[in-house]
Amino acid sequence: MKLLEYQAKELFAKYGLPVQRGCVVDTLATIPAQVAAAGLCYPVVIKAQVQIGGRGKAGGIQFADTQAEAIARAQELLGKDIRGFTANELLIVEKAEITREWYLSILLDRGSKNPMIIFSAKGGMEIEETAKTNPEAIAKVTVNPFVGIRDYHIDYLLDVSGADKGCRAQFAVMVDKLYRLFIDYNALLVEINPLATDENGQLIALDGKVDIDDSALYKLPDIVACRDHLQEDPLVLQARKFDFLYIPVEESGDIAVMSNGSGLLMSCIDLLAQKGMAVSAALDLGGGATAERIKEAVRILLTHKRVKALLISIFGGITRCDEVVEGVRLALLEQAEKKTVVIRMEGTNKECAMDIVARVADQVTTATSIPDAVNILAQKRQA
What we know:
Layout: H1 5-14, E1 22-25, H2 31-37, E2 44-48, E3 61-64, H3 67-77, E4 81-82, E5 85-86, E6 90-94, E7 98-109, E8 114-120, H4 127-133, E9 138-142, H5 151-161, H6 168-184, E10 187-198, E11 203-205, E12 209-212, H7 221-224, H8 234-241, E13 245-248, E14 255-259, H9 262-274, E15 279-284, H10 291-303, E16 309-316, H11 321-333, E17 340-347, H12 350-357, E18 364-367, H13 370-382
Parallel strand pairs: 14-15, 14-16, 16-17, 17-18
Antiparallel strand pairs: 1-6, 2-3, 2-6, 4-5, 7-8, 7-10, 8-9, 10-11, 10-12, 13-15
C-alpha cells in the first residue's frame, strides 16, 4: 500500500522526524482559511498528492508567492492527470530555503532478506541520474534486524557517499527514527527525497514516501484508515470485498493468473514471461474458497477488457478442486465473450472436478503441471 506524501509525513512526525508544517486541501474555497489555520507564510509550495514519483517533472509541484497565486496554481493542479493519477488533494507547505539536498531511504532487500539503508549526498530529482551515471556516490548497507542500527552503519554511509559529517549527529538520529518506523509499520520502503539542510543547518524531510506491506494491514488500523484517500484500481476494491488479493501486473498483459498462494502465482507469472506472454493481473484466493467465491474471482479477473485467457493453478487442501471448477463453470456461463481457461489442479476432490470439466470442455483445458499449463496457453495463442 503506497501512502500519499502527506500521509507519509504524518508518520514521520509521529516518530519525531522533522517535517514542514502544511495543510491538505481539496477545494479552492478553503485555501485561505486552511493556510492561515496552519500558520503558513508565503511563498508556498503546492504539491499534487498522487501515488507516484516524478511529480515535479510532470508539473505536479507549483510555487506561489501570494494567496491569489496559490489559488490560481491550485486550480491548475486539482483534477490534473499526473502520470495516470488524478490529483484530488493538494499539500501546501512553506517554501524552504535549503542549502543542500540528500537522499535517504530504507527498503526490504530481497537478496539478503534484511532492511537496506540507501544514502546519497546527491538527492532531489537528480537521484535517478546519479544512480545511472555515478553509482559509487550512492552508499548501501544492510541491517541485521536482531542488531539494529549501529554507529558503524552511520559512518559507512557518510564515508562512502562523501557527505559532510558536520550533520552526523542529526543524521544518525534521523536514520534511527526512520528505521524504527520501517520496522514498526512493516514497511517495504520508507524514503526521504530530498533530505534537506535548511538555512539554520537543520535536517528536514522535504518529501516522503512510505510503502506498507499489505499483509500487515490487519494490525495497522491507522494505515487502513488512509485507504479512503487513495486511488485504487476498482478491481482491487472488488476483490477485497471477497477477501481476495488482486494484483495488477502489466498494463499491456492479456493473461490473468489465479491461485491459492503467492508462491504459485509467482511461478506462473515467471514461466509465462519466459514464454513471452505478459500477465495483466494475478489473484490470490487464499484458503477455503467456495464455488460462489470462485465464481466472483473469475468474474473479476475476466472483467479486464484485455484479458483473453485465464491460468488457474490450485493445490487442493482446504480449497477443494471441485469447488474451484464449479465456480469457474458458473462464471463462464455469464461471460458474453468466450475466454480460454487452463486449469492445473491437484488435491482434494480432483476426480469430481474432472467430471465438471467435461461439461465445459469447449472452454476449459486441464494441465498436469504449471509448465504444461503455460505450454498449452502458448500453443493456443499460436493456433
